[in-house]
Amino acid sequence: xxxLLLGLALLFFLTRKKYVFKLDKPIFIPKLSFSTSSxxxxxxxxxxxxxxxxxxxxxxxxxxxxxxxxxxxxxIPFEIKLPATAPLALPQIAxxxxxxxxxxxxxxxxxxxxxxxxxxxxxxxYI
Length: 127
Fold this sequence. Notes:
Layout: H1 2-15, E1 18-21, E2 27-30, H2 39-46, E3 55-60, E4 63-68, E5 79-83, H3 90-100, E6 101-108, E7 111-119, E8 123-126
């Protein structure tokens, strides 16, 4: 039984693939007074609370497509395409986004004009 488990673990280790995802450049999201997103929601994302709740996960063309839900009605151009066998990677993606996603407010004269969204480093996933 132990050799079977070790064999399966070795098979997984040898056949897994490495996926790397990154944002090419920081994105500015303006603070709009008429948007449907509330300021507290943006601050929750900035504090990285409930990251799984802010992921938009869809199954298209035999692949899982993971992106971040729009902030202030602006779509963040971050998309991860995973194979159909990889839904277990979602907590790993959420954790890495929680530790690597930076949302910093842009202020001028004590008013928040918007938010800069960037990644500290690329997200690396092994499946």
